[in-house]
């Protein structure tokens, strides 16, 4: 099966333009099933074995993942990866399996997004200056990154993929390459471009037009984990809740726009969501905030009606 798995990963990255991170997740899921199937079958798994896998086998794999305490969301993704692999096998190798289509995905509860208080975001600027007092360019970098996530609603990967040429000259919008290589135009506030410009002026390296904008202390491109650590550091310093993450800054952008009257279609475009149902989660967030205000402020909210 090694040849087929390798061919599938190449198909995802080269034909479907999936990111290396996404392709790696697919590969991990498929190899997890192959490893299970080998033990279940009592022998190495061949291409013909894959064609013969039945519902009993697939359900046993899902049950095994549950015994390993793997999250429903992770298992739902793994099943989706396996379905994608089977479609690839049918298209390229003529291997068909109807049983995989009879397996239902685990129910994954969709959590409401949590936004950060705007005042806490503002406090982050002061905290950054205090934390990175010895390295002004690091402080400028971290604040520019926070503002990009909060002011433009970018994903971490999108912010870290920006190049110098993308942001020079105080543009009033950025062209963002999002998930699935989908492009979108994102308006940019002057405060965001000012913060980026200040960082670029102080930065000691990585100034070529095609260099990635955000750099590590050693001058290497900044990784997603480094960006997460920036917000973790701020969270601990300001004693903020655990849900304060880089992605929560994106949520804050979305809920602020929705509260300000933005329609769902516009918000979907700004966030780069492929499905409107994903964007609609923010209406639930907004309604929960409204209900919270109602319950605490409305004079009739806590009145018990008599029979």
Characterization of the model:
The chain has 307 residues and is mainly alpha-helical. It has 2 domains: 2-102, Tyrosine recombinase, N-terminal domain (DNA polymerase, domain 1, Orthogonal Bundle); 118-294, hpI Integrase, Chain A (Orthogonal Bundle), CATH 1.10.443. It has 14 helices and 2 strands, in the order H-H-H-H-H-H-H-H-H-E-E-H-H-H-H-H. The chain has a two-stranded antiparallel sheet with strand order 1-2. A hairpin with a 5-residue loop joins strand 1 (173-177) and strand 2 (183-187). It starts with a helix and ends in a 10-residue tail after the last helix. Residues 298-307 have low confidence and may be disordered.
Strand order of the largest sheet: 1-2
Per CATH, the superfamily of the largest domain is: Intergrase catalytic core
Radius of gyration based on Cα positions: 24 Å
How many distinct domains? 2
The count of β-strands is 2
Using the 3D structure, state the CATH architecture of the largest domain: Orthogonal Bundle
List the helices and strands and how they pair.
Layout: H1 2-15, H2 20-41, H3 47-52, H4 55-67, H5 72-93, H6 118-131, H7 136-152, H8 156-160, H9 164-167, E1 173-177, E2 183-187, H10 190-202, H11 224-238, H12 246-259, H13 264-271, H14 276-297
Antiparallel strand pairs: 1-2
Helix pairs in contact: 1-2, 2-5, 6-7, 7-10, 7-12, 12-14, 13-14
């Amino acid at each position: 099966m090694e040849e087929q798995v390798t061919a599938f990963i190449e198909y995802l990255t080269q034909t479907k333009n999936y990111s290396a991170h996404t392709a790696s997740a697919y590969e991990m899921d498929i190899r997890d099933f192959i490893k299970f199937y080998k033990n279940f079958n009592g022998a190495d798994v061949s291409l013909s074995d894959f064609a013969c896998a039945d519902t009993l086998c697939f359900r046993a794999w899902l049950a095994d993942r549950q015994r390993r305490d793997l999250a429903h969301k992770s298992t739902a993704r793994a099943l989706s990866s396996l379905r994608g692999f089977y479609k690839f096998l049918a298209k390229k190798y003529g291997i068909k399996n109807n049983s995989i289509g009879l397996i239902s995905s685990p129910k994954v509860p969709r959590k409401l997004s949590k936004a950060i208080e705007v005042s806490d975001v503002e406090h982050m600027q002061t905290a950054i200056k205090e934390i990175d007092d010895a390295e002004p360019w690091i402080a400028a970098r971290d604040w520019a990154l926070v503002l990009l996530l909060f002011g433009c609603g970018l994903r971490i990967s999108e912010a870290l993929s920006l190049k110098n040429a993308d942001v020079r000259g105080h543009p009033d919008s950025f062209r963002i390459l999002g998930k699935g290589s989908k492009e979108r135009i994102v308006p940019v506030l002057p405060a965001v471009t000012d913060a980026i410009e200040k960082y670029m002026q102080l930065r000691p390296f990585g100034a070529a037009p095609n260099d990635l904008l955000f750099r590590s202390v050693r001058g290497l491109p900044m990784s997603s984990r480094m960006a997460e650590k920036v917000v973790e550091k701020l969270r601990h310093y300001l004693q903020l809740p655990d849900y304060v993450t880089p992605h929560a800054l994106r949520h804050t952008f979305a809920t602020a726009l929705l509260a300000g009257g933005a329609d769902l279609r516009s918000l979907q475009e700004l966030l780069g969501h492929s499905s409107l149902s994903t964007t609609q989660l923010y209406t639930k967030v907004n309604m929960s905030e409204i209900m919270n205000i109602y319950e605490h402020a409305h004079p009739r909210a806590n009145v018990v009606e008599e029979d």
